[in-house]
């Protein structure tokens, strides 16, 4: 059984969904430490001026886990994000199909940013027809960290293969996985060009850029 693991990011790129689509089980690492360097509360869409960063204001302290971080809804970030997305994608072929559902998801209240991101990701997976099983790392009651935690998660969910991001090559040791009965594999997703609004193609935009322009067309 192939397992992949990742923090619940905000409106992630297609590579994130590619990993989910190729996995039997995907574990949201919702109890990892929140980081403003990672894409837990922001992402990129495309505007007439090029790449535009949209960011969710959050209430958090050093050491907070992702599932402990509250979104500052009182700052009306949801309305601002929806306005930007509507403004820049309303002429996209699949805007009318996607925007109302996305708006409905965004305007609901969530206890933390992890649950918001998880709900958004599940919506897009449903649209793509991805039937991967989802689990939360916080439900597994594990106390280990880093590479050992990844291995323990795989073992806890019955995984025999782990589908890792390439960035982890810097610290993961294949032998540590094989010694625990897990085959270590790395992602090989390459961004590809598709029709976009506003001029020349820009890779690695949020998934919403792809869906607004191409619908829920399967690519994997």
From TrEMBL:
It comes from the Bacteria. This is WbqC-like family protein.
